[in-house]
Amino acid sequence: MKRIATRSKAIGLVSALLMVSGAAMAQDFSEVIDNRQQNFLSIADTFKSLKKAEDGSDSDWETIRNLAIKNADTVGALKGMFPEGSSFDSRSKPAVWTKWDKFESGLDGLQTSFVSMADAAVAQDDDALEAAIKSADRSCKACHRGFRTKR
């Protein structure tokens, strides 16, 4: 009987330690998770503003260029915001880490789309801008399907 009680206490202690270490891991990554979520929200907001600045014959090319460069830089920074173990309490699927090459390739494609938008703004090329916007939209949707959990 004494042996069962001792084993039960040991199991309780191990369970408590696992819960504490799990909470500590979540706390360790809460700042990086918040930062990357804020970056994704910033990209979405900036992209909406960029689309509003695009108006065919009367586009605000300077605004489009500046917003596209801002988003390209933000996407580039995201690559360093997914440390191993930072999926806990985030909207990122485990596939981000198990299929990192594919995830990183998606970020690269999105970044390239924003660079193409900036180039199109400099050239004031409506067709190139429209193609880059469509490319970025496809990249966002593909990434959400493969690497982000639904609410």
UniProtKB/TrEMBL annotation:
Which GO terms label this protein's molecular function in UniProt?
electron transfer activity; heme binding; iron ion binding
Keyword Signal applies = yes
Q: Where is the secretion signal located?
A: 1-26
* PROSITE patterns, alphabetized: CYTCII
**Keyword terms, alphabetized:** Signal
The protein's matches in Gene3D superfamilies, at most eight in alphabetical order, are given as:
Cytochrome c/b562
Looking at the record's lineage, which domain of life comes first? Bacteria
Q: What is the lineage of its organism?
A: Bacteria, Pseudomonadati, Pseudomonadota, Gammaproteobacteria, Vibrionales
InterPro entries given in the database record: Cyt_c/b562 (IPR010980), Cyt_c_II (IPR002321)
Q: Which GO terms describe its biological process?
A: electron transport chain
Family annotation (Pfam families): Cytochrom_C_2
Q: What is this protein called?
A: Cytochrome c
